[in-house]
Design goal:
heterodimer, A: 319 residues, 13 helices, B: 290 residues, mainly alpha, elongated, disordered N terminus, disordered C terminus
Chain lengths: 319, 290
């Protein structure tokens, strides 16, 4: 088989493998947020509805249709982004998400990038000085960071910078330009960096230590290549794939918990706060949209990451 | 590092005691505190208002009181029991589910059963954890066990992945083939030959899940979708978030230190267990959320 056909086959197979995954995540989110969710008919009819009223409205809403038919219409609504209106304000869910998602991205992106970068940097120092004092210091810090809950980090930063020092605003999101953006984004970024150091450093270090004990790295060191050259061309390249995979998989864990916690605690009008309020008030259309869309988005991201890995490293074959 | 490392991997888990005295002592202290709560020896009046608002530490209230005048130390000790309840329930259940499904998938490696279990695992892993919890809490309409159920549903997959890989590895050694040639049924092979050889993997994974469950409980309780009608460090931290705006730090310090101490001790023990029992998969934890 020529390499190009082989690559084409890989891409089609991977995309085909994404279908069962998307089927699975949409089935679970449908079952939980729509099928088992509260029946909207009762809420819409108000007090003392008769059984006939309920049945009529359920028929109108399509509630009396069989499970698979309702699942199919759910899929159709997700695919066409026809997500209905929120129960709290009557705003279109699509508009609500379009309004709040950019806020969350601007809130979380700096912390995610800086945190991952710093964790990688620390891991490189630790791996290079493996067994030395610096290694033990960095490993110790990351173990402590891992034992600190994100909740503790947020409250501590709020206490230190918001209450004691009063350097940064700790509530709300009044961003009118670069200066106010920096003021609002600093505490969330710090929180993310601290969480990321605990979460990522040890993993990255383990990967790098593995890559550094290979023969070609030892040879490069023996020939006197500089540390940065060895790191860049021989070590990092070798473990590009596990590190990329780790970063992709840490997006939902860090970003979603981060956005839920930071935005609900600091009253920032992002998607996490919208979700949080929907949880508390039981706003079904919002939850359906957030759970369904993010599960599909993540399933697609994982597939794309797989494809990118294959493009970066032709040795990867179909498993 | 020390002489124990050179001993056999079949060294029993309690050799851990000799290497990590402090972590073990701390863990035992926490367990004792929790046992006392379960037996009703202390801290059963965590909801009672026994003092004035934000009282300073005194003989009556060693660590002061919170906004309502409840004793902070009593609440922190009562929360220890909650943490162990959540951690143990989730760790035990997800080890059973993950162990069984992982062993079955590994034993029938490549078959449709394996494919089905892998699909289920991939699907659950692809739904962001906190959204899964939210969806389950929503579907169960705020049932008190919604959080436990969600964690079990989310956390068995890591255990299953590790157990499956180990099962495939063990399956290549002769004794499984011998058992099959001898006419053993699949369930006999899984329960009599595979699972006893997987105990060390399950123990390490259970410890990791225990830590992850306690951390997740704190985040969820802080958000108000976790523990209900009880007290936990997460609920104390939710109070503390308001308290610090008024310059009151005791609730925050006590709840954070209690949580940090238990998570740290359990993590260190998990590391040592892994070093001792399961050297191949050393330090590749992946259950870590928030």
């Amino acid at each position: 088989m020529t390499p190009r056909i082989e690559l084409l086959r890989f891409i089609t197979r991977k995309l085909a493998a994404a279908l069962p995954l998307i089927f699975g995540v949409t089935l679970i989110s449908f079952t939980l947020t729509v099928h088992f969710g509260p029946d909207p008919a009762y809420a819409m009819l108000g007090k003392n509805p008769t059984a006939a009223d309920v049945a009529a409205l359920q028929r109108e809403l399509g509630q009396d249709q069989p499970f698979w038919q309702r699942y199919a219409s759910y899929l159709h609504r997700l695919a066409t982004l026809d997500l209905g209106h929120t129960e709290s304000s009557g705003e279109k869910v699509r508009d609500l998400l379009g309004r709040t998602l950019p806020v969350s991205i601007r809130l979380l992106a700096p912390g995610f990038v800086l945190g991952t970068g710093l964790a990688l940097l620390l891991a490189m120092f630790a791996a290079w000085h493996r067994g030395g004092r610096l290694d033990r210091l960095i490993t110790g810090i990351s173990v402590i960071g891992m034992s600190l809950s994100f909740v503790i980090i947020i409250i501590a930063l709020q206490a230190v910078f918001g209450v004691w020092l009063g350097w940064f605003p700790v509530r709300g999101w009044e961003v009118h330009g670069p200066a106010s953006y920096l003021a609002h984004v600093t505490i969330p970024t710090l929180a993310f960096v601290l969480a990321s150091i605990g979460y990522n450093t040890r993993f990255f270090r383990a990967m790098l230590v593995n890559a550094m004990s290979t023969d070609h790295v030892r040879t490069a060191r023996a020939y006197g290549a500089s540390p940065t050259h060895i790191m860049r061309y021989h070590v990092l390249r070798g473990c590009l794939l596990p590190i990329t995979t780790r970063i992709v998989y840490s997006v939902p864990a860090l970003a979603i918990s981060g956005s839920l916690l930071l935005e609900s605690h600091f009253s920032i009008p992002g998607i996490g706060r919208v979700t949080y309020q929907a949880i508390l008030s039981g706003d079904q259309p919002v939850l359906m949209a957030v759970v369904g869309l993010s599960a599909v988005a993540f399933a697609l991201t994982v597939t794309v990451a797989d494809l990118l890995c294959r493009l970066a490293d032709p040795r990867i074959r179909l498993a | 590092m020390n002489t124990v490392r050179t001993l056999s991997v079949h060294k029993r888990p309690w050799s851990v005691v000799r290497t990590d005295h402090i972590a073990t002592l701390v863990a035992i202290a926490y367990l004792a505190a929790a046992l006392g709560v379960w037996l009703g020896l202390w801290a059963d009046n965590w909801a009672e208002i026994t003092g004035t608002m934000w009282a300073d530490p005194s003989a009556a209230h060693w660590l002061g009181t919170n906004r309502l005048g409840q004793d902070i130390l009593v609440r922190a000790v009562a929360s220890t029991a909650t943490a162990f309840e959540v951690g143990l329930a989730v760790a035990l259940s997800s080890s059973i589910i993950g162990g069984l499904l992982g062993a079955v998938a590994g034993h029938f490696n490549g078959s449709p059963v394996d494919e089905l279990i892998l699909w289920l695992k991939g699907t659950i892993d692809a739904i962001p954890f906190y959204l899964l919890v939210v969806a389950i809490a929503f579907a169960l309409q705020g049932h008190a066990m919604a959080m436990h159920l969600a964690m079990i549903l989310a956390f068995w997959t890591t255990t299953a992945r590790v157990v499956r890989a180990e099962t495939i590895r063990i399956g290549q050694s002769g004794f499984i083939e011998a058992a099959r040639a001898g006419g053993s049924t699949a369930s006999r092979i899984i329960f009599r030959h595979l699972l006893p050889n997987l105990v060390h993997v399950l123990l390490v994974q259970a410890t990791l899940v225990f830590v992850a469950a306690i951390k997740a409980e704190v985040v969820l309780s802080f958000l108000g979708i976790g523990v209900q009608d009880s007290i936990s460090w997460g609920l104390m931290l939710a109070e503390a978030g308001q308290d610090i705006m008024a310059g009151q730090y005791m609730n925050f310090l006590v709840a954070s230190l209690c949580l940090f101490g238990l998570v740290m001790a359990a993590s260190l023990l998990a590391d040592r267990l892994q070093d001792r029992l399961d050297p191949r998969t050393r330090h590749q934890r992946s259950v870590d959320i928030g």
